[in-house]
Amino acid sequence: MSTVLDNPTATSRTGKPAAAAAEAAPEQTDGFHLVIDALKLNDIDTIYGLPGIPITDLTRLAQAEGMRVISFRHEQNAGNAAAAAGFLTQKPGICLTVSAPGFLNGLTALANATVNCFPMILISGSSEREIVDLQQGDYEEMDQLNAAKPFCKAAYRVLHAQDIGIGIARAIRTALSGRPGGVYLDLPAKLFSQTMDAQAGRQSLIKVIDPAPRQIPAPDAVKRALDVLAGARRPLILLGKGAAYAQADDAIRTLVEKTGIPYLPMSMAKGLLPDTHAQSAAAARSYVLAEADVVVLVGARLNWLLSHGKGKTWGGPDPQKLAKQFIQIDISPTEADSNVPIAAPLIGDIGSCVSALLDGIGNQWKKPPAEWTSAIAERKDKNLSKMAAQLAQQASPMNFHGALGAIRDVVKSRPDAIVVNEGANTLDFARSIVDMYEPRKRLDCGTWGIMGIGMGFAVAAAVTTGKPVIAIEGDSAFGFSGMEVETICRYQLPVCVVVFNNNGVYKGTDVNPTGGADPAPTVFVKDARYDLLMEAFGGKGVVATSPAELKRALQEAVASGKPTLINAVIDETAGTESGRITSLNPQKAAINK
Ligand code: FYN
Ligand code: ADP
Predict the structure, then answer these.
(1) In angstroms, what is the span from residue 144 Cα to ligand 2's centroid?
(2) What gap in Å lies between CA 77 and CA 71, rounded to an integer?
(3) Is residue 446 within 8 Å of residue 115, measured between CB atoms?
(4) Which one is the CATH code of 392-592: 3.40.50.970, 3.90.230.10, 3.30.200.20, 3.40.50.1370?
(5) Residue whose CA is closest, atom 6 of ligand 1?
(6) Which atom of ligand 2 is nearest to the CA of 348?
(7) What is the pTM of this model?
(8) Residue 51: is the preceding peptide bond cis (ω within 30°)?
(9) Residues 273-329: tens digit of each pLDDT
(10) CATH number of 219-378
């Protein structure tokens, strides 16, 4: 394998061979080094990417200069890793791709990061502007800048080495400030080998000061919010992944406990307070959404996951129940009134907004009426008992509850582990069965309900935290990023993938109605050995057919920190079409019934 030093296209710091460099003056730098130096100056220490023309040497040099470079097998997974790293660290995750096809492979992840409000920068090499713009048929020709624009907060291109510092500073500031999101940075191939005076190069770099400035809410907006809240008889705090991202954990916990208001976590806000907290209304979700009269949204949008704040979920058709008042804490002013009227928008960063509410509340706050909290407790107890009974059944073959009950026990004993979760039934059951105890320990399909985030998110979670990662994967969902088990083995990451293998999408029992040889569209190879995939790369593969086997294998994997894949054999009749969101699935027309 070639190294930086023996690779002729990589320039040394002086831009000249060592012997010549001794007599050459002044010292030179180049585009490669300026990109790396600009990232390092801003405390960015990891690149997730996939080498190839024109960025291969950038990956080599970045590693040589002390950055961690995690090379993937497909850019979408590298992009997802960068996005998850952004969410976990509040620093933009960097994804580095080659031109056109590599760039496009990364674009889904960039769009997903933007939709999820995760800070991420997709840096892509691109082909020569002169040829691309005249559409003369360059190698990997594509107008990447314009292709990226609809999918990110902003897209920038750098043409001159002396502008690299500015380009990276703008990308960082855009990704982090206000509502976080994805940014595209286009670096044409020619830029990397441009040279300039090293001293001038150093001076051209920018260390971004205060990239996510605090945004203090206006005092009258705080007062309005407190007035609305004070009038509530059935208040509810709804925590979203924005609240998890904000890292205002203590303030949020204090707000919940001091006011005594029940709270409902969205899936990635689970663990902000432990799911076992007495005030958690997660197990009474339908009840609290329908019945609450004032809802405080903290970093959560009233999108499809919350039925747009309308309809049956929120108490319709009863007009009294539907006439709720919302207080919305968000950094983005345009989020308010996006679906229903917001009585008290509280615009600012979550830490500042929650602190301002706490200051206003003082020590005089009247806790919610007991009839509200005890009605919730009653609903909650009912659902918890129902769940306990389902978890106690040891069905054979193993079903979702059996398998997830085993995982739930392991997570309880390792609350520092990070859970990555995707699939349909595997996602929906895991969300309510596997309790989380610490903030930012759950990563999942997020705002889009996207499949394919699994291995990318798992790699980033392991790389950024060094903690054990448990990826709970539907067998279909796993397929989107499964090849990255090689990446997990190559970097020896403490990731245990549990594949819920029920032989198909949703379930494995569909048949081809024509009686033809092709399997039904939703069915996979029966009894597939996903565990062998991990063994192919030197990791550990295990088949688990019972909750006891699964629990033992997972405990061992977490304790060893070794890459492991557990093929959890699930009853192929278990699972419903589209899981808990069947209502979104267009039904066959009556004519076909
Ligand atoms: C929740 N619940 C519990 C618990 N937690 N019962 C007992 N114990 C515990 N710990 C109850 C809760 O009160 C609900 O019952 C029910 O379990 C389901 O809770 P959940 O999962 O929180 O709520 P729900 O209704 O499914 O949430 C709607 C949703 C969710 C849209 C937010 O379905 C979601 O996040 N979906 C994402 C789907 C997705 O992205 N899929 C990927 C594409 S799949 P009741 O209160 O009695 O209602 C492509 O096919
Ligand atoms: P969930 O899917 O969990 O409900 P969403 O992704 O819908 O969460 O909502 C997250 C919200 O949090 C977005 O509207 C975003 O603008 C907001 N947000 C993100 N970071 C911050 C922050 N630091 N301060 C305030 N709001 C934030």
Answers:
(1) 28
(2) 10
(3) yes
(4) 3.40.50.970
(5) 283
(6) 25
(7) 0.96
(8) no
(9) 999 999 999 999 999 999 999 999 999 999 999 999 999 999 999 999 999 999 999
(10) 3.40.50.1220
